[in-house]
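Retry 2 of 3 after timeout on previous attempt. Resubmitting structure tokens to design endpoint.
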């Protein structure tokens, strides 16, 4: 049987604290809860997910490179605050052919003005934001629909 296509799900700083971190903004589901939701959906879509989190920008850069090297079908990227600051992440996304979909639990465009600009968004193929944990599921559905 052919291997199932893999979707990297990369999470940036402070997302390890989901569940207790500003629940009025980010909800009460933990990152593990989101991973479980995504695994179930991935199964139904015939996909595998490889979900990771780091508080360090360079890890996210390395994992974007790894997504391409390992032949991942797509990357879902919630870069947290690095979304709004990281030219290194923008360059990494532009350095790989693997499509990257930007994800946010909240909708940064309706929050403080420093969250309105997204470096990730300058190179991502799509963005799902403002749907809480469901932003990830919507992004996974979009990743499934991308051509191989
Ligand atoms: C976030 C939005 C960012 O502005 C913020 O820095 C985060 C989380 C979100 O998922 O809503 O850490 O990416």
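Retry 2 succeeded. Sequence:
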């Amino acid at each position: 049987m052919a291997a199932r296509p893999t979707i990297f799900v990369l999470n940036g700083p402070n997302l390890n604290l989901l569940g207790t971190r500003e629940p009025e903004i980010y909800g009460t589901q933990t990152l593990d809860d989101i991973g479980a939701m995504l695994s179930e959906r991935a199964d139904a879509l015939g996909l595998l997910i490889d979900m990771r989190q780091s508080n360090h920008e360079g890890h996210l850069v390395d994992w974007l490179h790894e997504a391409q090297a390992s032949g991942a079908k797509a990357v879902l990227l919630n870069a947290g605050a690095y979304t709004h600051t990281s030219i290194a992440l923008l360059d990494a996304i532009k350095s790989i052919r693997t499509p990257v979909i930007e994800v946010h639990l909240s909708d940064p465009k309706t929050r403080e003005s420093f969250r309105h600009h997204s470096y990730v968004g300058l190179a991502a193929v799509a963005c799902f934001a403002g749907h809480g944990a469901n932003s990830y599921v919507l992004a996974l559905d979009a990743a499934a629909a991308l051509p191989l």
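Attempt log closed. The chain has one domain: 6-145.
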